């Protein structure tokens, strides 16, 4: 594995599109890597791609009161994981090169202002700015993102389609701990007692999927309200619990018939740790 630390090295070492023996698979990360990131690399290799992983804690996607300074940096461990996973190139760029003197350009979309975007203003604009820049700099054939960050995946896929980036965006299923907690770099913020309770978030989502039998939209709203109450009873501070349409990522409404499939998305705080998760709800046929 070649370790690259500048855009100059990237241009020098990365084969141009016409010189590649295999499709280039991009795996963008913020580091503090775990088996969820390993799964992205494994899927890229299964798809017969040659993998470029990037490790960059993007300051543009953090708000002023968020955890940019606290976010874990584990470079040596990240290198070991990427090398053992089969990555060909690992890019550790400097913020001065990727962000520089940003003059305020932004990429937005109505969905970027909802859910996580409503609670983290500017977050998705920062994500899309850096992802689009990585696409421009690396010209990948494919790019891999985890489905845990489902709203992010939707927005990146939408950006690629609307801006006509010549890249295939591929979502990879969420990797979970044995008790069901979605793997996340921020899980290390949980204290031992919180870690015991954290899997309740996914358990509640699974219960919701089992209960999902709406006769009308009011039933969906009632179920979402019940889920909020369940989370609060278990010590969470929920930000949102919403049934969204898989194609538009907008909240399901009365215009959507009961049999409409959905994605149930949620974000909730447990102590000082913000957790997000989601689950697919298949079409209901009562």
Word description of this protein:
The protein is an alpha/beta fold and 286 residues long. The chain has two domains: 2-172, Rossmann fold, CATH 3.40.50; 185-279, 2-Layer Sandwich (Pantoate--beta-alanine Ligase, Chain: A,domain 2), CATH 3.30.1300. It contains ten helices and nine strands. The protein has a six-stranded parallel β-sheet, with helices on both faces. Strands 7-8-9 form a three-stranded antiparallel β-sheet, with helices on one face. A hairpin with a 2-residue loop joins strand 8 (262-270) and strand 9. Helix 6 (123-138) crosses helix 7 (150-163) and helix 9 runs antiparallel to helix 10 (217-233). The longest helix has 17 residues, at 217-233. The model has no long low-confidence stretch (mean pLDDT 96).
Task: Provide key terms for this protein.
single chain; 286 residues; alpha/beta; Rossmann fold; Pantoate--beta-alanine Ligase, Chain: A,domain 2; 2 domains; 3-stranded antiparallel sheet; 10 helices; 19% strand; ligase; ATP-binding; cytoplasm; EC 6.3.2.1; Pantoate_ligase
Encode the helix/strand succession as letters. Answer: EHEHEHEHHHEHEHHHEEE
Total individual domains: 2
Please give the CATH class of the largest domain: Alpha Beta
CATH architectural name of the largest domain:
3-Layer(aba) Sandwich
| DSSP summary, beta strand count | 9
CATH homologous superfamily of the largest domain - what is it?
HUPs
Q: Which structural class is indicated by helix and strand composition?
A: alpha/beta
Strand content: 15-25%
The overall pLDDT, averaged over residues, is 96
| Global geometry | globular
Q: Give, in spatial order, the strands making up the sheet with the most strands.
A: 1-4-3-2-5-6
CATH topology label of the largest domain = Rossmann fold
| C-alpha end-to-end distance | 53 Å
Q: Radius of gyration from the CA trace? A: 19 Å
